[in-house]
Predict the structure.
Amino acid sequence: MVYMNEYKVFKALGEKTRYSIVLKLLNTKNNCCTNLASFTKKDLSTISRQLSILKKENIIEITKINKTKCIKLKNKTLVLKIINDIKKIKGDEK
């Protein structure tokens, strides 16, 4: 079971780039850092910083294949629930 501190997860997802990364990961199985950088229009150093925060909060896991870092969500169901809760709080979804 993946342990997530709810407060820290909400805080981690409160930043626009990290939120975008998680939304992208919800819709795809695996992504590499360069794909996420291209998707978010941010440089690799920014993406690496954001990924380290998401990893610290057990939201994602990073595996290295050769020189490529592959990123995927640890618990897709739980993250999807949290994202839906965030949307309800913001009033985006009723």
